[in-house]
Amino acid sequence: MFTRTAPNHHARVRLTKKVLWSIPTYVFLIAIAVVMVAPFIAMISVSFQMGEGVSVFPIQWIPTAPTLSNYLHILQTSDILQWFMNSLIVATVGTTIAIFTATTAAYTFARMDFPLRNVIFWSFLAMLMIPSQVTLIPQYLLLAQLDWLNSYQALILPGITSAFGIFLIRQYLLGLPRDFEEAARIDGASEIQIYSRIVLPMLKPAIATLGTIQFLNYWNDFLYPLVVNTDSNMRTLPAGLATLQTPTSGLPELLAGATIAIVPTVIVFLALQRYFTRGIVMSGLKG
Amino acid sequence: MANSISNPALPSQTKAISSAAHSLRIRRRRQVLTAYAFLAPSLIIFLVFRHLPAAASLIMGLFDWTGITTPEFIGLTNYNNLLHDMVFWRALGNTVEYTAIVVPAEVVLALGLAILLNQKLPGLKLFRLAYFIPVVTATAIVAIVWRWLYQPTGLVNEVLQAFRIPAINWLSDGRFALPSIAIMAIWQHVGFNMLIFLAGLQAIPAEMEEAARISGAGRWNIFRYVTLPLLRPVIVLAVILTTIGSFQVFDSAYVMTGGGPFYATTTLVFYAYQQAFEQYSMGYASAIAFFLFLIILAISLLQRRVLRGDEDVY
Description:
The structure holds 2 protein chains of 2 kinds. Chain A is built from 13 helices and no strands. Chain A has helices at residues 2-47, 69-77, 80-111, 117-127, 132-145, 152-156, 163-174, 179-186, 191-202, 204-220, 223-228, 237-243, 251-286. In chain A, α1 (2-47) runs antiparallel to α13 (251-286), α8 packs antiparallel against α9 (191-202) and α10 runs antiparallel to α13 (251-286). Chain A is flat. Chain A starts with a helix and ends with a helix. Chain B is mainly alpha-helical. Chain B has helices at residues 11-60, 77-83, 86-117, 124-136, 139-149, 155-162, 177-202, 206-214, 219-247, 251-257, 268-277, 282-308; strands at 63-64, 72-73. A two-stranded antiparallel sheet of chain B has the order 1-2. The longest helix of chain B has 50 residues, at 11-60. Chain B starts with 10 loop residues before the first helix and ends in a 6-residue tail after the last helix. Classes of the chains: A mainly alpha, B mainly alpha. At the A-B interface, α1, α3, α4, α5 and α9 of A face α1, α3, α4, α5 and α6 of B.
C-alpha cells in the first residue's frame, strides 16, 4: 500500500533538498573563507616580492620572482629580531607563572574554606569588569616609580594573574572528584604535595587552554607594551612594528615584518586550536 | 575547651576528646594558612597591579599632573573641562558610532555562520579554522596589513572596481575612515562570536527542534520560535562582550589612521592615550579613562540585569 513507498519518497525528497541546499551553503562559506584568508595571503605573497609597483594592485598572488631580500633587509636594519625575542621571553615566562598563580588560587577557591574567601573571590570577579585602559596610567606611574620602565618585569608582571584564568581553572576543578585528594590527605600528604602530584596533573586540559589563551594575550598585547617599554630594543613585536612606519625598502619590507609577527601566532593556534576553542566556549557559556 | 563537652564521663575520655579537638584545630589552622599561602601570589599581584591602580585612577582624575612634576589637586576641574571639550565629545561619538556599526554586523554575521556550520556536512571544521585565524592575530599587526589594503590603489578598491563601484579613499576620507576600521574589526572578530554561537547552538537539545519539526513547523518558524529564544542568553552575551570590546578600540586607530583625518577616528582610548603620553596631562587622561570605566561598568551591570530573566529558560 502507501506505507511502503511513502517513507522512502519523503526520505529521498529530504535528502535531495539537503544536497541542493548545501551547494549555496558551501559557496557562501567558501566566499567568506576567502575574505578571511586573502589579506594574509596577499601579505605573505608581496613580502616575497621586490621592486616598484609590487605592492600596488593588481598584485601577483603567486610571486613570479620570489626573493628573500625584504626579510633579510628588515632583519638587518631594524630591531625586529630583538622584538621577537622580547615577545617570546615575556610570553613564555609570563604564561608559565600565570599557570601557577591561577592554579593555586583556583585550588583554594574550589577546594578550601577559609575566612574572607567570598570577599576575595568577589574582588577577583570585580577585576573582570575593569577595562585594562583604566589601570594603564596608574600602572605606568607605578612602574616609573619603581624604575621598572623598559624592563621585562614591567611586561610580565601585570599579566601573571588572570581573573579569567582563575575562574576557568576553578570551574574545571569543581567538576572533578575530590576522592584522590581526600585519600592523599588521609594518608598524611601535605597540601603542596596534593597540589603538585594530584591536582596539577588532573588539570592538564584546563592548563593547556589557559596557557594557549594567555600566551596569545601576551604576544598580541599592544597598548600596554607600547606605553611601558619605549626603548626600541625592549619593545615587543606589535609595538615595535607599529612604530616602524617607513622602512627603507618600503611596503614589502613592512609586510615581511608583519609576516614574521603573525606566523607564530597562527602556528600556535593551529597546533593548539582544540584548547583555544574550548576555552572560548567555556568562557562563553559560563558568562 | 572542657565547657564545650556537655557530659564529660571519665577524665581520660575528656582528655582524649579535647586533644582530638585540639589537633583538629591545629590542622584547620594549617589549612587556612596554606590557603592564604596559595592565594598570596595572585592576591598580591592583583592588589598591586589591579585594585590599587583602579582606585588610583579614580583619584588621579582629580589632579593636574604631568607625571613628572608634583600633582596639583584641582578637584572636579578635569571632569568639568571634559564636558566642554569638543574633542572628547567627538571621541565619544566616534566610539559609539564605531560600536553601532561593529556589534550588529558582527553578531548577525556570526550567527549566520554558526547556523550554517552547525550542520553535519563534511569539511565544516576547516571553515571554522579559517574563520578563527584573524581572531588570534594581533590587531596592531593586521592593522598594518589592512592599512595597505585600504590604499587608493589597494585590494579593497580593486574588489570594488570588479563590481563597478568607484574607488574610495578609505583612510583619508573623513566619512569612510571610521567605517574602515569598523569593517576590519568585524573581519577580525566574527570568528570569535561564531564560536560562541556554535557552542550555544550545540547546547540546544535536538529533541526540541525535532518535536517542532514533527508537529509540522517550517524551518523559519522552528528558528524563530524554538532556536532563537533558547539562544537568547548566548546572543546577549555576545552582544555585551562585543560592545565592551568595541568601546576599548585603540590599536587600529593608532596604527591605521593615527586618530585622523581631523579626529575622525579618535576614539575614547586613543584620546586618553594622547592626553597621557603625548600631552602629559595624566590627570585629564585619567578622567577620560574613568569615564570609559563607568560606561563599561554600566554595560556589564545591564548584562546581569538582562540575563537574570533567562535563568529559567530551560
